[in-house]
Amino acid sequence: MTTLVISSQKGGVGKTTVAVNLAYSLARRGWRVLLIDADPQGGVGFSLSEKAREAKGFFNLLDPTNDKDPRSLIISTRLPEFRLMMCGTADLLSGGEEPQDTPELRDQLRSLLSQFSDHDLIIVDTEAGIHGLTRAIMAVADYLLLPQQAEPLSARSMPRLLRHIAALRKELGEDASTPRLAGLLLTMVNGDDPVTGEIESDLRGMLPSELILESRIPRDPTFLNASRAGIPVALLHRKTPEAAESFDTLAAEVEDRIDLAKSSNEQESDEYTRLMD
Amino acid sequence: MSTLDSWIDRDELAEVVGELVKVSGPPPSAPAMEEVPEPEDSEAPINDTTVPLGLEDAEPEVFPVSNEGQEAFSVGLEKSALTETEQGEAPLDIEQTQVTSGECAHSHFPAEETAFERGILEPETDVVEELAEEPPATDISHGAEVFGSVGEGPMAESEIQPPSLDAVSEEAISPFDATSPESILSEAEFGSGETAQDLISPGSAEEISAPEAEAEAEAEAEAEAEAEAPIDFDEPQAYDASAFPAPEEPNPESAISPLRRTAAFQAAEALERARDRAQLGGLLKPAHSPNPPLLDEFDDSVLQNTESVSEEFSPASDVGPMGLESESTTEFESIEVENRQEDLDFTPPPFEPVSLDEEPVPPAPENLAEDISTPPNDAPPSEFEDSGDKVTPEELPMANPPSPTSLRGRLMAYVEHARQKTGAEIVTVTDFQSYPLLPGPTTPAPAHSALRLSHWLGLLTAELQKTRDGVTQIAVDHHHWLCVVAADSAAGGVCASFRLNDPMPDDLARELGAALRATLGEAPKVEAPNPPLPVE
To answer: Taking CA atoms, what residue in A is nearest to B392?
Structure first.
């Protein structure tokens, strides 16, 4: 099981869109993917179902009074490999106050995530900002994927985002093997806009290829239509929309960057060993 | 000047990037970076006779163009070719793109120049004589490694020949990418008027006799000391672009530099690896997680999430086209599909379960009422293995034929059925992205792609004329025909192509198309082959 957290310091960069569509693309490739909505705004649920706001989910599991089996809150979709956990009712948690990034919270998150080990990949969509709960989730994750809007304001804040990541790594100690960086993902790339092109060129020039994904997500009205329809963009039309192909490319690249095949093989090997024992 | 330069402190960014690069990507089991050999003479003394040519020391370390260069660099140099130490110690400042070639020539070898001016360094005759005796082999080695690191990784010395260096430099350097480090690198190594070919040409070197060479070297040194007129790297026409052959069809307005293209090659390789994994079964679900039939209408607003969702999350209401559902309901829905198919008087083709029924599947109930009377599965709804399957070596992907309940198993049954029906030599099943879904011999990809294109055009014609189903087949030579059948579903499309000795009859093609759709769990479509999906 690999945990991939999608986070960014700035809001509106497309985290939820990336989370939903990347999860769907990876599931289509055969990986058992659980998408957890850890954003109190409930973006994932609202992207897929109007009724999602009433479903219990991730935040309910963080509530000390919770007695629900975490696995019972997983919602299956028609693509069997793709499963969801809604954000739940966040206001139940600590009287609505945002949880702080504490060792106890991290332990609780580790324990929680370990219960979903029958998935190949857990994708966690977080709220904007790297603090509190989001920071704790990042601390216990295996990989971080950082959507980065290809626009000037977002690009200027990029160093600060990286500083936060570096600080988190430093806090965890040099020996910590995780979290690792899957990379920055350029989103909302408008190929017709010279400013966007310039920003993309600058960012790719500044950052080594290890830190920035080759794939990029275009700015495309198809995403709005898909969101309105409550489906991943790949399901919008019978013929795969062009915008969806960018997520297929992204899925292939992410799969490679986080070495999903290896971790999955190790997991299957562990299961096999357990069965043999 | 980058638009972000005034906003981003590059020194600080370089420091952070240096830390994060170490923890990017998969854990360091992939040793691509560490395997790059360290050039032996990277610490060569300054009176090394090969130094002035610049080819031997084409390491990033020898290009600290300025002391300000503690930067994130890397516009062009492939980071995978650098060791971590090199990444930390050898930054290239992107702003160096504005340094003139004369400054580059001076700043790259300040010690050598000082020594030369003081008369300590006497490389000229030796170097020229070395060139005359052993023209290219040794001098291009490290330079080629640098180029190789930009492109396809380090080369063995034995592989390096002058033409290959020429080819590599042609591929990697573009005059339209004046800001790339290769341009700086090449300028620094070869001078603005020289090319790698100039330096390694055996003919030119052999023509130089020793006295002439000495005089010529002095002249060169003087010229180098005086330097040429400063070159503005932001102005492509300001320097001799002919030294750097343009790639085919250069696009000056493109934001993607040749080095980004190199990265694109890496991405393509990653895709290729993914494709390979797909061929090994990675595209489909592992055998221990059976794939229940997909529904024909994914926007059918039926939610049966009675077990896994809270009471407030009413399953009867609008849930969106994703159709959130609980695990335990998929069986009901699959039976529902079967009954719907029966209502349409469509009988799926008789699959040949001979080799696939090693894992017996409980017989499906005759009708929905009977199925409802069956108690639901009590297993936790989130277990992928709740069908009882456990992973064994035999069930791992590709080890044995998968369960007939999985999509892969059903596709294999379909192929077997179609092969018996048609006598096709080769049956290729791919998704719409041309990923082969099953192992075994496949139709050549170009032929398959061309056939698919023809198929879609045929469907378009059929859609417009409403005369017949699209049956697409072409003669690939005097003895063989290819016929393609495609089916789409909510989870993706699948193509099957058949290599036959004779054209496939229309009715058989239609039957196979319907069978393939049924294999995917789609209801048979009799009229329009691919009706557009209404989006609300």
So the answer is: A272
Question: Would you say B308 and A55 are in contact if contact means Cβ atoms under 8 Å apart?
Answer: no
Nearest to A256 among B273, B317, B385 (CB): B273
- Average pLDDT of chain B is 51
What is the number of CB-based contacts under 8 A between chain A and chain B?
269
Domain layout of chain A by residue ranges: 2-276
With an 8 Å Cβ cutoff, is B279 touching chain A? no
Angstrom distance (rounded) from CA A150 to CA A98: 30
Q: How far apart are the first and last CA of chain B?
A: 47
What dihedral angle (degrees, nearest 10) is formed by the CA atoms of A21, A27, A31, A36?
A: 60
Contacts of A151 in chain B (CB under 8 A): none
A177 confidence band (pLDDT: 50, 70, 90): confident
Cα–Cα distance for residue pair B108/A257, rounded to 1 Å: 36
Quote the minimal CA–CA distance from B244 to chain A in Å: 21
**Residue boundaries of the structural domains of chain B:** 10-250, 327-520
Write out residues in chain B with pLDDT < 50, as ranges: 30-209, 227-250, 252-256, 281-321, 323-402, 464-470, 525-529, 531-533, 535-536
pLDDT tens-digit map of B47-82: 443 333 333 333 433 333 334 433 333 333 333 333
pLDDT of residue B414: 86
CB within 8 Å: A206 and B318: no
Indicate yes or no: CB of A214 within 8 angstroms of CB of B266: yes
pLDDT over 50 at A146, yes or no: yes
Q: Is B185 in the A-facing interface, judged by CB distances under 8 Å?
A: no
CATH for A2-276? 3.40.50.300
What are the distances in angstroms from CA B491 to CA A255, A258, B306, B381?
19, 24, 23, 21
pLDDT digits (tens, 9 = 90+) for A68-109: 888 888 888 878 888 889 888 766 555 556 788 899 999 999
Choose, out of B16, B96, B517, the residue to mutate when testing the contact with A (most A CBs < 10 Å): B16
Please give the CATH architecture assigned to the domain spanning B327-520: 2-Layer Sandwich (3.30)
- The C-alpha atoms of residue B366 and residue B355 are separated, in whole angstroms, by 25
Window 15-74 of A, Cβ < 8 Å to B:
28-30, 32, 48-52, 54-56, 69, 71-74
- The answer to whether residues B397 and B286 touch, using CB atoms and an 8 Å cutoff, is yes
Q: Which residues of A touch B492 (CB under 8 A)?
A: 28
Residues 6 or more apart in contact with residue B45 via CB below 8 angstroms: none
